[in-house]
Amino acid sequence: MKKNCLSFFGVLFSMSLVFSQEVAFEEYDLDNGMHVILHQDNNVPVVTVAVSYHVGSKNENPNKTGFAHFFEHLLFEGTKNIERGEWFKLVSSNGGSNNATTNYDRTYYYENFPSNNLELGLWMESERLLHPVINQIGVDTQKEVVQEERRLRVDNAPYGRWQEQMFKNLFTKHPYNWTVIGSLEHLASASLEDFQNFNKKFYVPNNAVLVVAGDLEIEKTKKMIQDYFGPIPRGADVVQNTFIEDPIQGPVKVKFEDPNIQIPLIMMGYRTPGQTERDAYVLDMISTYLSDGKSSKLYKKLVDDKKMALQVFAFNGSQEDYGAYIVGGLPVGETSLEDIMKEVDEEIVKVQTELISEKDYQKLQNKAENNFVNSNSSIAGIAGSLANYHLLYDDTSLINTQIDIYRSITREEIRDVAAKYLKVNERVELEYLPEQKNAN
């Protein structure tokens, strides 16, 4: 959901800095299975109400993809007690802002309000859960919205289909092999009953975590939460399926032509472990070492010194079950994709066979500290972190302790993990090319 309701209080949230002190929180379960997390910070009169549902694109039927993202839009259509088209007006007229996001593993909704409207935020999210209106007019309206979003962000965007092409080759068994936005054909052919059944299955309190963070009174907030969410019936248990991928027998070479680009792109993709694994944290540091900033190894070598690339990148996209480590670049002039790949591979081999310098290691630690602090630099950021750490890591305390994992990673681990996962014969090589015009 990309529609924002901006207000003075939205700016205030972004300015409400919380530095490196420990984030205090309290958590408990309602009788219906909803997990509740409370964080009290009375320094600024603002509050975030957020609900994260353990449903993402990986939970979809392979023949009905796009549902999780579609619901991110659909559930703003209205409820039994909030008329269609009134959701955003209700938020903005009360000094708030709101949004929602979907990924492979979860769907997240939130409202930011001045703290005297905490109860309004709780009521609205309970309405979304208990009384959503899912009818044909709402479905038809949001189908048009999602169609336009896909055209803008994927089909007509330069390099917009790289993830689609890479992931369907990295993952052959796991549902990560389709994109979060899914198939427009699947959405177009789906019935109203399909959408209603999806809501009934996944939008239940026992598949959700409610986070309330900011200027609140704990006992008063607990009472309101019980009043608004306690009576909602528990749903059937949601089973998170397990998918085991076979090792990649490669390299798997893929070519794709995009009519929206003029400069080719080379990408190498490696399947990596899920985000809770220690190795995933090490891979984060490796990507920082290789391409984060102008002093990083790949940027300095390929962009600054050899002037072979317009851009280089390396990132570890960790999800709940698996990750995808992606590295590549855009060539300059007559530089070939093979040349870029060769230079990148040389730097990867160095990481795999040599210890990085103590100076570079300290830079990695400093960046990890900075990223950790920035992720919790606002009340809204803290709410999102609390929800994710509980829902996807099963450890809410990571909001205070995750940085200790990065601090404990050694130079030897960086070398060994690079050698373990960044193997040429276990990767996908994607040549993302300009469309070849027919000579006729």
From TrEMBL:
Domain Peptidase M16 C-terminal per the UniProt entry, residue ranges: 190-366
Keyword Zinc: yes
Signal sequence segment: 1-20
Domain named Peptidase M16 N-terminal: residues: 36-176
Superkingdom field: Bacteria
Entry keyword set: Hydrolase, Metalloprotease, Protease, Signal, Zinc
Any Pfam family hit: Peptidase_M16_C
Gene3D superfamilies named in the record: Metalloenzyme, LuxS/M16 peptidase-like
Family: Belongs to the peptidase M16 family.
Protein name from the UniProt record: Pitrilysin family protein
Organism whose genome encodes this protein: Croceitalea vernalis
